[in-house]
Write a structure and sequence with these properties.
Elements lengths: L1 H26 L8 H8 L12 H14 L13 E4 L14 H13 L6 H9 L8 H10 L5 H11 L7 E2 L9 H12 L3 E9 H9 L12 E10 L19 E9 L4 H10 L6 E4 L5 H8 L8 E6 L12 H10 L3 E4 L13 E2 L30 E6 L5 E6 L16 H15 L6 E6 L17 H23 L4 E6 L1 H13 L3 H4 L2 E7 L5 H6 L14 E3 L3 E2 L38 E4 L5 E5 L4 E4 L6 E4 L27 H24 L1
Parallel strand pairs: 1-3, 1-6, 3-4, 6-7, 7-8, 11-12, 11-13, 13-14, 14-15, 16-20
Antiparallel strand pairs: 2-9, 4-5, 10-12, 17-18, 19-20
């Protein structure tokens, strides 16, 4: 066992060293050094002529192919095991004009081509799609409903027909023309070197087959080598039978789409379906977003018997494309994860066929008038309904109101919490109960249920979070607006939220508290577990970091970690936040001794304190990042729990470590606010 551990440690050190070398090479613009084989190939007939000469990605690809196809070489891979898997949208073809091929096909089908076949509800969904929409399972289920009753052949033919339509996002481009030519060339190059090409897409499987059959890579991808999102298919006349075991296919029967949905092929499904349908690990994987990383990691898993590599496309070309991703940030992130980044801007010599250029506008919404019956329902929940509140006016005798926003509790496979999920709603209430003791002695409490972003959202790349956060915030904003109109009556307001709840607090400050009259009602904002960044305060002057223990109209923000932690996805390296020390209420590096800690309280879902310990820990502010560095505790006793957080990240204990100090501070700030209000009233 000890020998095995030493081996794994050695491999880990080697991997880290390799990543550091690769990172340095990229930073210097050198890329991977050409091997003799790569140099020979490039000197002659260039197999990747649409890739810029000498770039790291191109050299890496050629070196890899040379190494694994050299019979007798150390890294040789037999032909039957040379499997390369590609995501489609954003990897092989354009997705950066917001709407994927399948989304635009859905819009056209519902609103223009066959509106007579779909319900008013589906027309409303199609008409409501805008940039930033959620390309999630919910939308995919609507796609499935739209095509109910079509045979598989009819559906395939419609997907082909749609590809001939022109997109408004580019001049002279049909939807079928949106393949990246360098990636098509790469597919051919791999195919010519004995690789079996598989496309693993989030687009529905039959649609993907139709697209590929009419694309530049049609000769290199067999229909059976396509894995995609799956809609339910049955024999006509048996659509309502619960099991396919209840009937048999006969000569002349037709297979039809029922409107049912099976699975969305993103995230974990990509690795699961690769294993189920291919049955072995790929040796090459190509993607462009967080929803592809499961497939990438499955390929480069240490248990792969062969040398494997994974590549990520970075959409950083905003001249020939609509890509606005930051190369420096994205490439560093991908390299850290073991993926080799490909820059569309610097690696691709050409992206699309000659004559295709960006249009003046990136997205042109559907221009159609809907009847009142077809108008989309309001996105936000109805907060006149008491069932949509976890707390409603608890503590009538208090002088101020608390608007409390729940942290992330949804661990389901959805992207946003379902209001029909009673188990998650119970966890939602429990999480609120855990922190209510900080505020309930001082405030009358309100806390809305909302369709929060689920934990799986945080596994995506950061720029992919926003659509799910926007849906969550649409509920929070609607609840706050309803509360202001019907409940507040000019009373002082405390905003509070932990983690995702803190993120929602900042959004409320942005939207509502630029109004001076409302801002004057603000006692404080306890945005714990999410950073109050320099960017936020620069853009929104109403977001004012606290400077002491009793100032008001301010944000109290901090996120806890061990001294040795240098970054987390909550507090990335290089991000400067305005944190405050919850023991001495200073914003500088002055350390607070653990004797100043009035009590760490660890609570349960009923709000009961399971254990309490005075003087548990001290802390100080990290001047560089603004995080709170916690001392006197052992990281081994306080596991991160949250996926993606490193050892020593104390995020889930942020308010519990300083429970009594926070409780005291809420009362102190409210007293300071009320004293000032009394003075103003007297004046």
């Amino acid at each position: 066992m000890e020998k095995q551990l030493k081996t794994w440690r050695g491999l880990a050190v080697t991997a880290i060293c390799l990543l550091l070398v690769v990172s340095i090479l990229y930073a210097l613009g050198v890329g991977w050094k050409k091997s003799a084989a790569a140099a020979e190939l490039l000197a002659g007939n260039d197999p990747l002529s649409l890739w810029n000469e000498g770039t790291g990605a191109k050299n890496s690809l050629i070196d890899y192919v040379s190494a694994v196809t050299q019979e007798g070489g150390a890294d040789y891979i037999p032909v039957e095991d040379r499997i390369a898997v590609f995501d489609m949208d954003g990897t092989l073809a354009c997705e950066t004009f917001y709407t994927y091929y399948d989304t635009m096909m859905f819009i056209e089908y519902c609103l223009y081509d066959h509106p007579e076949r779909v319900s008013d509800e589906l027309k409303a969904v199609a008409a409501s799609i805008r940039p930033g929409y959620l390309a999630d399972e919910t939308l995919a289920r609507n796609f499935a409903k739209a095509y109910a009753g079509m045979t598989v052949e009819e559906f395939y033919n419609y997907a082909v027909e749609f590809g001939q339509k022109k997109t408004a996002s580019f001049d002279n481009m049909r939807y079928i023309d949106n393949f990246y030519l360098p990636m098509a060339e790469l597919v051919k190059y791999l195919y010519d070197n004995g690789f079996e090409i598989w496309v693993i897409s989030g687009t529905e499987r039959t649609t993907t087959r139709a697209i590929l059959a009419n694309s530049p890579i049609r000769d290199y991808v067999e229909p059976e080598h396509v894995i995609g999102t799956d809609f339910e298919v049955k024999q006509r006349g048996h659509e309502d039978e619960p099991s396919n075991m209840d009937f048999k296919y006969e000569n002349g029967d037709e297979l039809v789409l029922t409107g049912g949905f099976i699975q969305k092929n993103l995230n974990g499904n990509k690795s699961i379906y690769v294993e189920r349908e291919i049955g072995k690990r790929p040796v090459l994987a190509f993607g462009n977003s967080g929803s592809d990383t499961s497939m990438m990691n499955y390929a480069i898993d240490a248990r792969n018997p062969y040398l494997a590599q994974a590549y990520m496309i970075v959409a950083d070309d905003n001249e020939r494309e609509w890509g606005t991703q930051d190369w420096e940030a994205k490439s560093a992130d991908y390299l850290a994860k073991g993926f080799i980044p490909i820059s569309m801007k610097t690696d691709f010599a050409q992206i699309y066929p000659d004559g295709i250029t960006k249009a003046a506008e990136q997205y042109v919404p559907a221009d159609i008038q809907l009847s009142a019956a077809q108008t989309p329902a309001q996105d936000a929940l109805d907060y006149a309904d008491a069932d949509n509140w976890a707390y409603f006016g608890i503590g009538e005798d208090k002088d101020a109101d608390l608007f409390l926003i729940c942290p992330t509790v949804d661990m389901s496979d959805e992207f946003n919490m379902s209001m029909d999920d009673e188990d998650t709603k119970a966890s939602f209430l429990g999480a609120l109960n855990m922190e209510r003791g900080i505020y309930e002695e001082s405030t009358r409490m309100y806390a809305p249920y909302y369709r929060q972003a689920a934990m799986k959202v945080y596994s995506l790349d950061r720029e992919e979070w926003e659509p799910y956060m926007e849906l969550a915030y649409s509920d929070v904003s609607a609840a706050f607006a309803w509360y202001l109109e019907h409940e507040n009556e000019g009373r002082p307001i405390v905003l509070a939220g932990f983690s995702q709840g803190a993120d929602m607090c900042y959004r409320l400050l942005e939207e509502y508290f630029g109004d001076e009259e409302l801002y004057d009602q603000l006692v404080a904002v306890y945005a714990i577990g999410w950073p109050c960044t320099e960017e936020l305060t620069a853009q929104y002057p109403q977001i004012r970091p606290a400077q002491g223990a009793d100032d008001f109209g301010v944000v109290i923000s901090f996120d806890c970690e061990a001294p040795e932690v240098t970054e987390t996805f909550i507090s990335p390296a290089g991000q400067r936040a305005f944190g405050i020390n919850p023991l001495n209420w200073r914003t500088d590096e002055t350390a607070a001794d653990k004797s100043e800690n009035l009590g760490a309280c660890f609570t349960d879902y009923n709000g009961e304190i399971r254990s309490e310990q005075e003087s548990l820990c001290g802390c100080y502010i990290d001047a560089e990042r603004g995080a709170v560095k916690v001392t006197d505790v052992d990281p081994a006793e306080y596991a991160p729990i949250v996926p993606g957080l490193p050892y020593g990240a104390y995020h889930v204990y942020d308010y519990q470590f300083f429970f009594r100090n926070l409780q005291q501070n809420v009362a102190e700030r409210l007293a300071s606010y009320m004293a000032r209000a009394a003075t103003d009233l007297a004046a």
